[in-house]
Amino acid sequence: MAATHAGALSPPAETRLGDPHALGGLLSALGAVAVVITSAFYVASPQAAAGPVQPLDLAAAIAGAAKGAATLRIAGTVGVFGDLIWATAALIIASELGRRGRGVSAAGWTLLFLSVVIFTLVDGLTGYVLPPLALAADSSAFEGFKRLWDMLFFLGTVAFGAGVMAAMGAESRAGRRKVDRVLTGALLIVGAIGGLDAVAGLLGVTGFPVDRIAGASIGLGSALFIPVSLRIARRSAWPDGPRG
């Protein structure tokens, strides 16, 4: 029974950094913390420049990027470094799960890896491309990069939501401690809502705040990943087999 339910959230007893789950869990927590900080600076920036607003209001986006250049630069800088850490963590965990024959969970963490790679580009554009173009009043170049930014933001959110569903789906059914079920259940809800919202954004749906929902799903999902990641790194917190 224990072997049946052993997954990413049930690492072996070894917790030193040489163990893939311990290292992956710790790096994942660190990367998630950085993304939460990044999300806070996105929130502190003008909405027209810090989200994939549908439909695009070019004048508002340019004005927002110029006005929020300082906070966007911080968001982008913290984001790209945090993304590198989290991508490394997701790849380590996915590789270990694949080695253990946990195909669905491994696919989920691979999708999370791809999501973070996409958001590395998003954060790089946020901090180092869009504000300078806005300050230079280069509207043509700004529009092209902003439309690319919007698409990448939605695509990364879709990958994040799908990754959460695949990586955490099996864990939510494993019958573990109540706190573990709450954490994985909350992540599944956030991932599903964010992913569906981002699909709507990619399809050009308007009439509701797709930008805020997608952004909130990344920020809240990252916050939830902090305790989940720490529990991945600690064998005692995610024991094998069902728990009441």
Structure, described:
- By secondary structure, the protein is an all-alpha fold.
- The radius of gyration is 19 Å and the shape is elongated.
- The protein has helices at residues 2-5, 20-43, 47-50, 58-67, 69-99, 103-128, 130-135, 139-172, 178-202, 210-232.
- Residues 1-7, 10-15 and 236-244 have low confidence and may be disordered.
- The longest helix has 34 residues, at 139-172.
- The chain has one domain.
- The relative contact order is 0.18.
Keywords:
single chain, 244 residues, mainly alpha, 10 helices, elongated, disordered N terminus
Structure summarized in a few sentences:
The chain has 244 residues and is mainly alpha-helical. It is built from ten helices and no strands.
Q: What class do helices, strands and sheet pairing give? A: mainly alpha
Number of domains: 1
How far is the N terminus from the C terminus? 15 Å
Mean pLDDT over the residues: 87
Point out poorly predicted stretches. Answer: 1-7, 10-15, 236-244
The coarse silhouette is elongated
Count of extended strands: 0
Strand content: under 5%
Question: How would you summarize the topology of this molecule?
Answer:
Layout: H1 2-5, H2 20-43, H3 47-50, H4 58-67, H5 69-99, H6 103-128, H7 130-135, H8 139-172, H9 178-202, H10 210-232
Helix pairs in contact: 2-5, 2-10, 4-8, 5-6, 6-8, 8-9, 8-10, 9-10
